[in-house]
Amino acid sequence: MSTQITTLPNGFRIVTEPMPGLESAAIGLWIEAGARHEHRDQNGVAHFLEHMAFKGTARRSALQIAEEIEDVGGYINAYTSREMTAYYARVLRPDVPLALDIIADIVLNPAFDAREIEVERGVILQEIGQTLDTPDDIIFDWLQETAYPDQPIGRSILGPSLRVESFTEADLRGFVGSHYGPGQMILSAAGAVDHDRLVRLAEPLFAHLPSKAAQPVARARFANGERREMRGLEQAHFALALEAPHYRDADFYTSQVFSGALGGGMSSRLFQRLREDKGLCYTVFAQSAAYSDTGMITIYAGTGAAEIGTLAVLTIDELKRAAEDMSEAEVARARAQMKAGLLMGLESPSARAERLAKLLSIWGRVPDVSEATARIDSVTAAAARVHGAALIEHSGLALALYGPIDSAPSLAALSTRLAA
Asked: Is 50 an annotated catalytic residue?
């Protein structure tokens, strides 16, 4: 399997990776414009725009978009993240041209019909309401906002209801005009694809687009902070964050391994201590996320009102202990989990197409999988412990609590215990 990259004169990038033996292909357009690229009064517009892509174009109605892709047994979808928006499809080999044409059409020629804007506004408001009613969803938005206050990267991807209620066609077209340039777009495909053919198909669709400079984003600043929301729920929801390395940081893989050993599976420290030994929770995990200039290790658990204090204290104790005595066996297990997750994901053309686009965006190239596995394998227990100690000493804490949390310790108390 070989990756090929072509860049058109206007900056539009095309990346492919054929997967012999497959009869299907995943193809999509990844755009380097997400919630982080919004101004405060635009918060939620990138996600609204993603929804509107499927509501009709100059050539196709919303129903025709759905029918054309499903008539050939394919599917089409999209998502918005803090740094990217993606529009992608999965189809059989002969239908790659159709999928590409539909994706190009919905991204470049959205109709933004007034009636459809109102219909989709209602859908998004329902989505926001559903999130607000799901404690183990909304707490992560609150944690992000607490860790990065008054910053685009800290704001909700869905946006607040009041903003969503006010968006107009002009707001949608304005965001597209500012951020949907060819230099911000990556056409990525994997599976039953031919690179040269895809380039020939893409050129008449994208080569004419005028180049535009990428809009700068404010640099992320991680801050200590706390948000406590009392509510009469069955569970108290606890989410804690420390600043972690960004994508290009030399310690990126070390951070991933450290968080995996801390709370990445059933054998992890947090799972064994908080669930298996103490019976304090059903769900507990730690994970490490990264962005272009910052990252976060997040620890989450749901517990009872009477147990929240104990759970919070033991979480801090396990975090400290991991930085002091994380073993070679724990690190080896975390490395194996990371590599298995990476390699298993590559068996899916959809996951592979997404990986190609993200790596090309981050590095300007697509590193071989062996490069990633070698860097994972290079993480030692000693390096993980040093990294954990540095996190504790330098990163600070952000805390979000939701539910019956009267007995939960304050951020100041947890910070003092962590530093002791």
From this structure: yes
Question: Residue 245: CB partners within 8 Å, gap ≥ 6?
Answer: 251, 252, 254, 255, 290, 295
Query: Measured between alpha carbons, how far is 339 from 59 in angstroms, rounded to an integer?
Result: 44
Q: Per DSSP, what are the bridge partners of residue 226?
A: 399
pLDDT in tens, 94-142: 999 999 999 999 999 999 999 999 999 999 999 999 999 999 899 999 9
Q: Would you call 172 helix, strand, or coil by DSSP?
A: helix
Q: Token pair of 18, please?
A: 């054929």
17, 32, 50, 120: which is the annotated catalytic residue?
50
Tally Cβ neighbours within 10 Å of residue 325. 10
Q: Is 238 helix (H, G, I), strand (E, B) or coil?
A: strand
d(CA 273, CA 321): 12
What band does 396 get if pLDDT is binned at 50, 70 and 90?
A: confident
H-only helix segments in 133-160? 135-147
Element (H, E) at 28: strand 24-31
